[in-house]
Specification:
The chain has 4 domains: 155 residues, Molybdenum Cofactor Biosythetic Enzyme, Chain A (3-Layer(aba) Sandwich); 49 residues, Molybdopterin biosynthesis moea protein, domain 2, CATH 3.90.105.10; 88 residues, Molybdopterin biosynthesis moeA protein, domain 3; 73 residues, Beta-clip (Beta Barrel). 17% of the residues lie in helices and 30% in strands. The strands form 7 sheets. Strands 7-4-6-5-9-8 form a 6-stranded mixed sheet, with no helix packed on it. Strands 16-13-17-21-20-18 form a 6-stranded mixed sheet, sandwiched between helices. 39% of the residues are buried.
Length: 405
Amino acid sequence: MIPVGEARARILAAFTALPAETVPLPDALGRVLAEPAVARLSQPPFAAAAMDGWAVRAADIAGASTDTPVTLRRLGEAAAGHAFAGTVGAGEAVRIFTGAPLPAGADAVVMQEDCEDAGDHVRVGHAVPAGRFVRPAGLDFSAGEEVLPEGRRLTARDVALAAGANLPWLRVRRRPRVAVLATGDEIALPGDPLGPNQIVSSNALGLCALVTSQGGIAHNLGVAKDDPEELAAMAAGAAGCDLLVTTGGASQGEHDHVRDVLSGLSLNFYRVAMKPGKPLIFGTANGVPLLGLPGNPVSTGVAAVLFLVPLLRHLQGLPAEGATVTARLGAPLKANDGRADFLRATLAPGADGLPVATPFPRQDSAMMSRLARADGLIVREPQAAAAAAGDRVTVIPLSGGVLSL
Protein backbone atom coordinates (compact mmCIF):
# COMPACT_ATOMS: atom_id res chain seq x y z
CA MET A 1 0.00 0.00 0.00
CA ILE A 2 1.12 3.55 -0.69
CA PRO A 3 0.15 6.69 1.26
CA VAL A 4 -2.75 8.85 0.12
CA GLY A 5 -0.51 11.80 -0.68
CA GLU A 6 1.79 9.71 -2.84
CA ALA A 7 -1.15 8.17 -4.69
CA ARG A 8 -2.59 11.61 -5.44
CA ALA A 9 0.81 12.90 -6.55
CA ARG A 10 1.30 9.97 -8.94
CA ILE A 11 -2.13 10.50 -10.49
CA LEU A 12 -1.63 14.23 -11.00
CA ALA A 13 1.88 13.75 -12.41
CA ALA A 14 0.44 11.66 -15.24
CA PHE A 15 -1.65 14.57 -16.59
CA THR A 16 -1.24 18.11 -17.82
CA ALA A 17 -3.89 20.79 -18.13
CA LEU A 18 -6.17 20.32 -21.11
CA PRO A 19 -5.81 22.61 -24.15
CA ALA A 20 -7.80 25.79 -24.60
CA GLU A 21 -10.86 26.33 -26.74
CA THR A 22 -12.97 29.35 -27.57
CA VAL A 23 -16.59 29.37 -26.40
CA PRO A 24 -19.38 31.96 -26.71
CA LEU A 25 -19.98 33.88 -23.51
CA PRO A 26 -23.40 32.26 -22.81
CA ASP A 27 -21.64 28.88 -22.62
CA ALA A 28 -18.83 30.04 -20.31
CA LEU A 29 -20.49 29.52 -16.91
CA GLY A 30 -18.41 27.12 -14.84
CA ARG A 31 -15.56 27.00 -17.35
CA VAL A 32 -11.97 27.85 -16.41
CA LEU A 33 -10.21 30.69 -18.20
CA ALA A 34 -7.16 29.57 -20.18
CA GLU A 35 -5.96 33.17 -20.55
CA PRO A 36 -6.84 36.48 -18.91
CA ALA A 37 -10.01 38.24 -20.02
CA VAL A 38 -9.08 41.76 -21.17
CA ALA A 39 -11.67 44.53 -21.49
CA ARG A 40 -12.34 45.77 -25.01
CA LEU A 41 -13.73 49.08 -23.77
CA SER A 42 -13.78 51.33 -20.72
CA GLN A 43 -16.72 51.21 -18.35
CA PRO A 44 -18.36 53.62 -18.24
CA PRO A 45 -17.10 54.77 -21.66
CA PHE A 46 -17.87 58.39 -20.75
CA ALA A 47 -18.51 60.47 -17.63
CA ALA A 48 -22.09 59.66 -16.66
CA ALA A 49 -24.71 60.82 -14.22
CA ALA A 50 -25.10 58.61 -11.15
CA MET A 51 -28.40 60.22 -10.16
CA ASP A 52 -31.47 61.86 -11.69
CA GLY A 53 -31.11 65.61 -11.37
CA TRP A 54 -29.42 68.58 -13.05
CA ALA A 55 -25.98 68.77 -14.66
CA VAL A 56 -24.32 72.00 -13.54
CA ARG A 57 -21.03 73.78 -13.03
CA ALA A 58 -20.24 73.43 -9.32
CA ALA A 59 -18.81 76.94 -9.18
CA ASP A 60 -22.15 78.41 -10.24
CA ILE A 61 -24.01 77.00 -7.22
CA ALA A 62 -21.30 77.32 -4.56
CA GLY A 63 -23.55 79.59 -2.45
CA ALA A 64 -26.83 77.76 -3.02
CA SER A 65 -28.99 76.81 -0.06
CA THR A 66 -32.64 76.21 0.70
CA ASP A 67 -33.06 79.83 1.80
CA THR A 68 -30.96 81.29 -1.02
CA PRO A 69 -31.40 79.09 -4.11
CA VAL A 70 -29.44 79.80 -7.28
CA THR A 71 -31.43 80.16 -10.50
CA LEU A 72 -29.89 78.63 -13.68
CA ARG A 73 -31.11 78.74 -17.25
CA ARG A 74 -32.31 75.37 -18.60
CA LEU A 75 -30.62 74.34 -21.86
CA GLY A 76 -32.23 70.94 -22.46
CA GLU A 77 -31.97 67.40 -21.16
CA ALA A 78 -29.85 64.28 -21.36
CA ALA A 79 -31.07 60.72 -20.86
CA ALA A 80 -29.41 57.31 -21.00
CA GLY A 81 -28.59 56.73 -24.65
CA HIS A 82 -29.37 60.34 -25.55
CA ALA A 83 -26.59 62.85 -24.87
CA PHE A 84 -27.07 66.63 -24.77
CA ALA A 85 -25.16 67.99 -27.76
CA GLY A 86 -24.34 71.44 -26.45
CA THR A 87 -22.04 72.85 -23.77
CA VAL A 88 -23.05 74.05 -20.30
CA GLY A 89 -21.82 77.56 -19.71
CA ALA A 90 -21.94 79.96 -16.79
CA GLY A 91 -25.40 80.15 -15.22
CA GLU A 92 -26.73 77.19 -17.22
CA ALA A 93 -27.95 73.66 -16.43
CA VAL A 94 -29.19 70.54 -18.21
CA ARG A 95 -31.88 68.18 -16.91
CA ILE A 96 -30.14 64.81 -16.67
CA PHE A 97 -31.10 61.23 -15.86
CA THR A 98 -29.10 58.33 -14.42
CA GLY A 99 -26.68 56.83 -16.93
CA ALA A 100 -26.76 59.78 -19.32
CA PRO A 101 -23.44 61.24 -20.52
CA LEU A 102 -22.43 64.34 -18.57
CA PRO A 103 -22.69 67.35 -20.92
CA ALA A 104 -19.56 69.24 -21.88
CA GLY A 105 -18.89 72.07 -19.47
CA ALA A 106 -20.74 70.49 -16.55
CA ASP A 107 -18.77 68.96 -13.68
CA ALA A 108 -21.43 67.91 -11.15
CA VAL A 109 -25.00 66.69 -10.78
CA VAL A 110 -27.46 68.04 -8.24
CA MET A 111 -30.19 65.62 -7.14
CA GLN A 112 -33.63 66.49 -8.42
CA GLU A 113 -34.92 66.54 -4.83
CA ASP A 114 -32.71 69.59 -4.19
CA CYS A 115 -33.96 71.50 -7.22
CA GLU A 116 -37.18 73.15 -8.36
CA ASP A 117 -38.05 72.89 -12.03
CA ALA A 118 -39.34 76.26 -13.22
CA GLY A 119 -39.75 75.54 -16.91
CA ASP A 120 -37.06 77.52 -18.70
CA HIS A 121 -35.12 77.79 -15.45
CA VAL A 122 -34.22 75.63 -12.46
CA ARG A 123 -33.77 76.81 -8.90
CA VAL A 124 -30.96 74.90 -7.14
CA GLY A 125 -31.23 74.84 -3.35
CA HIS A 126 -28.12 72.84 -2.47
CA ALA A 127 -24.43 73.38 -3.23
CA VAL A 128 -22.34 70.38 -4.40
CA PRO A 129 -18.63 70.02 -5.12
CA ALA A 130 -17.25 69.19 -8.54
CA GLY A 131 -17.60 65.45 -9.28
CA ARG A 132 -20.68 64.92 -7.10
CA PHE A 133 -22.92 62.17 -8.50
CA VAL A 134 -20.68 61.79 -11.55
CA ARG A 135 -19.22 58.44 -12.59
CA PRO A 136 -15.98 59.27 -14.40
CA ALA A 137 -15.05 57.43 -17.58
CA GLY A 138 -13.28 54.17 -16.74
CA LEU A 139 -14.48 54.19 -13.13
CA ASP A 140 -15.11 50.42 -13.23
CA PHE A 141 -12.38 49.36 -15.67
CA SER A 142 -10.49 50.66 -18.67
CA ALA A 143 -9.95 49.29 -22.17
CA GLY A 144 -6.99 46.89 -22.14
CA GLU A 145 -7.35 46.14 -18.42
CA GLU A 146 -7.39 42.53 -17.23
CA VAL A 147 -10.82 42.04 -15.69
CA LEU A 148 -10.64 38.28 -15.04
CA PRO A 149 -7.43 36.28 -14.43
CA GLU A 150 -6.30 33.09 -16.10
CA GLY A 151 -7.26 30.03 -14.09
CA ARG A 152 -10.53 31.43 -12.74
CA ARG A 153 -13.64 29.27 -12.77
CA LEU A 154 -16.30 31.55 -14.14
CA THR A 155 -19.28 32.41 -11.97
CA ALA A 156 -22.50 34.14 -13.00
CA ARG A 157 -20.94 37.40 -11.78
CA ASP A 158 -17.93 36.81 -14.00
CA VAL A 159 -20.14 36.22 -17.03
CA ALA A 160 -21.84 39.54 -16.35
CA LEU A 161 -18.47 41.29 -16.01
CA ALA A 162 -17.19 39.78 -19.27
CA ALA A 163 -20.34 40.94 -21.01
CA GLY A 164 -19.83 44.45 -19.65
CA ALA A 165 -16.26 44.35 -20.94
CA ASN A 166 -17.67 43.60 -24.42
CA LEU A 167 -16.24 40.09 -24.59
CA PRO A 168 -18.59 37.87 -26.64
CA TRP A 169 -16.09 34.95 -26.66
CA LEU A 170 -13.69 33.58 -24.05
CA ARG A 171 -10.72 31.20 -24.15
CA VAL A 172 -11.30 28.43 -21.63
CA ARG A 173 -9.88 24.99 -20.86
CA ARG A 174 -11.54 22.11 -22.61
CA ARG A 175 -13.86 20.15 -20.32
CA PRO A 176 -12.44 16.77 -19.20
CA ARG A 177 -14.20 13.79 -20.78
CA VAL A 178 -14.62 10.96 -18.28
CA ALA A 179 -16.04 7.52 -19.03
CA VAL A 180 -17.62 5.73 -16.08
CA LEU A 181 -18.10 1.96 -16.01
CA ALA A 182 -19.71 0.06 -13.14
CA THR A 183 -18.98 -3.66 -12.78
CA GLY A 184 -20.58 -6.59 -11.02
CA ASP A 185 -23.25 -9.27 -11.43
CA GLU A 186 -24.94 -8.01 -8.29
CA ILE A 187 -25.98 -4.55 -9.53
CA ALA A 188 -28.85 -3.39 -11.70
CA LEU A 189 -29.84 0.04 -12.97
CA PRO A 190 -32.37 2.10 -11.01
CA GLY A 191 -35.88 1.12 -12.06
CA ASP A 192 -34.86 -2.20 -13.59
CA PRO A 193 -36.23 -5.45 -12.13
CA LEU A 194 -34.01 -6.71 -9.32
CA GLY A 195 -33.01 -10.34 -9.05
CA PRO A 196 -33.07 -12.08 -5.68
CA ASN A 197 -29.38 -11.33 -5.07
CA GLN A 198 -29.07 -7.91 -6.68
CA ILE A 199 -28.80 -4.31 -5.48
CA VAL A 200 -29.35 -1.03 -7.32
CA SER A 201 -26.32 0.54 -8.96
CA SER A 202 -25.61 3.95 -7.44
CA ASN A 203 -21.88 4.43 -8.01
CA ALA A 204 -21.92 5.20 -11.73
CA LEU A 205 -24.72 7.75 -11.52
CA GLY A 206 -23.11 9.41 -8.51
CA LEU A 207 -19.74 9.59 -10.25
CA CYS A 208 -21.27 11.02 -13.42
CA ALA A 209 -22.99 13.68 -11.34
CA LEU A 210 -19.71 14.46 -9.58
CA VAL A 211 -17.87 14.79 -12.90
CA THR A 212 -20.54 17.17 -14.16
CA SER A 213 -20.48 19.19 -10.93
CA GLN A 214 -16.73 19.67 -11.32
CA GLY A 215 -16.94 20.93 -14.89
CA GLY A 216 -16.34 17.66 -16.74
CA ILE A 217 -18.34 15.72 -19.32
CA ALA A 218 -19.43 12.29 -18.08
CA HIS A 219 -20.07 9.28 -20.32
CA ASN A 220 -21.91 6.51 -18.50
CA LEU A 221 -20.86 3.24 -20.16
CA GLY A 222 -23.36 1.22 -18.13
CA VAL A 223 -22.86 -1.91 -16.03
CA ALA A 224 -20.48 -4.70 -17.03
CA LYS A 225 -21.17 -8.13 -15.60
CA ASP A 226 -18.42 -10.22 -14.01
CA ASP A 227 -17.54 -11.62 -17.40
CA PRO A 228 -14.09 -10.87 -18.84
CA GLU A 229 -15.27 -10.50 -22.44
CA GLU A 230 -18.17 -8.19 -21.55
CA LEU A 231 -15.95 -6.06 -19.32
CA ALA A 232 -13.34 -5.67 -22.05
CA ALA A 233 -15.95 -4.81 -24.68
CA MET A 234 -17.70 -2.20 -22.56
CA ALA A 235 -14.45 -0.63 -21.40
CA ALA A 236 -13.55 -0.05 -25.05
CA GLY A 237 -16.25 2.62 -25.03
CA ALA A 238 -13.79 4.88 -23.18
CA ALA A 239 -11.74 5.41 -26.35
CA GLY A 240 -11.20 9.12 -26.91
CA CYS A 241 -11.88 10.05 -23.29
CA ASP A 242 -9.37 11.65 -20.96
CA LEU A 243 -10.05 9.10 -18.21
CA LEU A 244 -11.85 5.82 -17.58
CA VAL A 245 -13.25 5.39 -14.07
CA THR A 246 -14.41 1.94 -13.03
CA THR A 247 -16.20 0.94 -9.85
CA GLY A 248 -15.97 -2.51 -8.37
CA GLY A 249 -13.74 -5.34 -9.50
CA ALA A 250 -10.61 -3.66 -8.15
CA SER A 251 -9.98 -6.05 -5.28
CA GLN A 252 -8.29 -9.44 -5.34
CA GLY A 253 -11.28 -11.78 -5.29
CA GLU A 254 -11.97 -14.44 -7.91
CA HIS A 255 -14.69 -12.26 -9.42
CA ASP A 256 -12.62 -9.05 -9.53
CA HIS A 257 -11.46 -8.78 -13.14
CA VAL A 258 -10.53 -5.15 -13.76
CA ARG A 259 -6.76 -5.61 -13.45
CA ASP A 260 -6.66 -8.86 -15.40
CA VAL A 261 -9.16 -8.18 -18.17
CA LEU A 262 -8.28 -4.71 -19.44
CA SER A 263 -5.68 -5.61 -22.03
CA GLY A 264 -2.54 -3.58 -22.06
CA LEU A 265 -3.07 -2.40 -18.49
CA SER A 266 0.02 -0.58 -17.31
CA LEU A 267 -0.31 -0.45 -13.54
CA ASN A 268 1.07 2.55 -11.68
CA PHE A 269 -0.16 1.50 -8.25
CA TYR A 270 -2.69 -0.75 -6.58
CA ARG A 271 -3.99 -0.29 -3.03
CA VAL A 272 -3.77 2.87 -0.97
CA ALA A 273 -3.29 3.09 2.79
CA MET A 274 -6.69 4.61 3.50
CA LYS A 275 -10.13 3.77 4.76
CA PRO A 276 -12.55 3.53 3.25
CA GLY A 277 -11.23 2.78 -0.21
CA LYS A 278 -8.06 0.69 0.09
CA PRO A 279 -8.47 -1.28 -3.19
CA LEU A 280 -7.78 1.44 -5.75
CA ILE A 281 -6.11 1.09 -9.14
CA PHE A 282 -4.35 3.67 -11.25
CA GLY A 283 -2.76 2.94 -14.59
CA THR A 284 -3.41 2.96 -18.32
CA ALA A 285 -5.72 0.56 -20.16
CA ASN A 286 -5.78 0.46 -23.94
CA GLY A 287 -4.18 3.89 -24.09
CA VAL A 288 -6.72 5.51 -21.74
CA PRO A 289 -5.77 6.47 -18.16
CA LEU A 290 -7.67 4.27 -15.71
CA LEU A 291 -8.79 5.05 -12.18
CA GLY A 292 -10.29 1.90 -10.68
CA LEU A 293 -12.37 2.65 -7.59
CA PRO A 294 -13.72 0.14 -5.07
CA GLY A 295 -17.31 -1.06 -5.24
CA ASN A 296 -18.70 -0.06 -1.84
CA PRO A 297 -20.59 3.19 -2.48
CA VAL A 298 -19.02 5.20 0.35
CA SER A 299 -15.56 3.95 -0.61
CA THR A 300 -16.26 5.08 -4.16
CA GLY A 301 -17.46 8.49 -3.01
CA VAL A 302 -14.56 9.13 -0.64
CA ALA A 303 -11.99 7.99 -3.18
CA ALA A 304 -13.59 10.24 -5.79
CA VAL A 305 -13.29 13.23 -3.46
CA LEU A 306 -9.64 12.46 -2.73
CA PHE A 307 -8.45 11.57 -6.23
CA LEU A 308 -10.99 12.27 -8.97
CA VAL A 309 -11.92 15.80 -7.90
CA PRO A 310 -8.27 16.98 -7.66
CA LEU A 311 -7.59 15.44 -11.06
CA LEU A 312 -10.56 17.18 -12.67
CA ARG A 313 -9.39 20.49 -11.19
CA HIS A 314 -5.85 19.85 -12.41
CA LEU A 315 -7.04 19.09 -15.95
CA GLN A 316 -8.88 22.42 -16.04
CA GLY A 317 -5.88 24.43 -14.91
CA LEU A 318 -7.02 24.89 -11.32
CA PRO A 319 -4.98 24.12 -8.19
CA ALA A 320 -5.54 20.43 -7.54
CA GLU A 321 -5.99 20.77 -3.82
CA GLY A 322 -9.19 22.43 -2.69
CA ALA A 323 -9.46 24.37 0.55
CA THR A 324 -9.76 22.48 3.83
CA VAL A 325 -11.49 23.65 7.01
CA THR A 326 -10.19 23.65 10.58
CA ALA A 327 -12.91 22.52 12.97
CA ARG A 328 -13.36 21.27 16.51
CA LEU A 329 -14.39 17.70 17.17
CA GLY A 330 -17.95 17.22 18.33
CA ALA A 331 -17.22 13.75 19.74
CA PRO A 332 -14.10 11.88 20.93
CA LEU A 333 -12.19 9.61 18.55
CA LYS A 334 -10.09 6.54 19.22
CA ALA A 335 -6.47 6.30 18.13
CA ASN A 336 -6.10 5.52 14.44
CA ASP A 337 -4.28 2.57 12.89
CA GLY A 338 -1.78 2.56 10.03
CA ARG A 339 -4.18 3.79 7.35
CA ALA A 340 -5.45 7.34 6.88
CA ASP A 341 -9.12 7.54 7.82
CA PHE A 342 -11.71 9.87 6.35
CA LEU A 343 -14.70 10.09 8.66
CA ARG A 344 -18.04 11.29 7.39
CA ALA A 345 -19.18 14.17 9.59
CA THR A 346 -21.65 17.01 9.93
CA LEU A 347 -20.54 20.62 10.43
CA ALA A 348 -22.30 23.09 12.70
CA PRO A 349 -21.40 26.62 13.87
CA GLY A 350 -19.16 26.71 16.95
CA ALA A 351 -19.07 29.15 19.84
CA ASP A 352 -15.50 30.31 19.13
CA GLY A 353 -15.97 30.81 15.38
CA LEU A 354 -14.66 27.38 14.38
CA PRO A 355 -17.24 24.89 13.08
CA VAL A 356 -17.93 21.75 15.06
CA ALA A 357 -17.33 18.53 13.13
CA THR A 358 -19.29 15.61 14.51
CA PRO A 359 -18.55 12.19 12.97
CA PHE A 360 -21.39 9.76 12.49
CA PRO A 361 -21.26 7.05 15.20
CA ARG A 362 -21.17 4.33 12.55
CA GLN A 363 -18.78 4.70 9.61
CA ASP A 364 -19.80 1.77 7.43
CA SER A 365 -18.58 1.99 3.83
CA ALA A 366 -21.94 0.79 2.50
CA MET A 367 -24.07 3.48 4.19
CA MET A 368 -24.83 5.97 1.43
CA SER A 369 -27.25 7.94 3.59
CA ARG A 370 -24.42 8.96 5.89
CA LEU A 371 -22.32 10.19 2.99
CA ALA A 372 -25.26 12.12 1.54
CA ARG A 373 -25.91 13.83 4.89
CA ALA A 374 -22.25 14.58 5.58
CA ASP A 375 -20.89 18.10 5.24
CA GLY A 376 -17.27 17.00 5.18
CA LEU A 377 -14.64 14.34 5.81
CA ILE A 378 -12.61 14.49 9.01
CA VAL A 379 -9.00 13.66 8.10
CA ARG A 380 -7.26 11.24 10.47
CA GLU A 381 -3.63 10.65 9.66
CA PRO A 382 -2.09 7.18 10.09
CA GLN A 383 -1.24 6.41 13.72
CA ALA A 384 -3.08 9.53 14.92
CA ALA A 385 -3.48 9.57 18.70
CA ALA A 386 -6.87 9.50 20.37
CA ALA A 387 -8.65 12.86 20.17
CA ALA A 388 -11.05 14.45 22.63
CA ALA A 389 -14.17 16.45 21.86
CA GLY A 390 -13.09 20.04 21.27
CA ASP A 391 -9.73 19.12 19.71
CA ARG A 392 -8.91 20.72 16.39
CA VAL A 393 -9.18 18.60 13.25
CA THR A 394 -8.86 19.12 9.51
CA VAL A 395 -12.00 18.67 7.43
CA ILE A 396 -12.38 18.30 3.66
CA PRO A 397 -15.67 20.06 2.81
CA LEU A 398 -18.07 18.11 0.60
CA SER A 399 -19.10 21.18 -1.33
CA GLY A 400 -17.95 23.35 -4.19
CA GLY A 401 -18.51 23.03 -7.91
CA VAL A 402 -19.14 24.92 -11.10
CA LEU A 403 -22.35 26.71 -10.14
CA SER A 404 -21.08 29.27 -7.64
CA LEU A 405 -22.92 32.58 -7.91
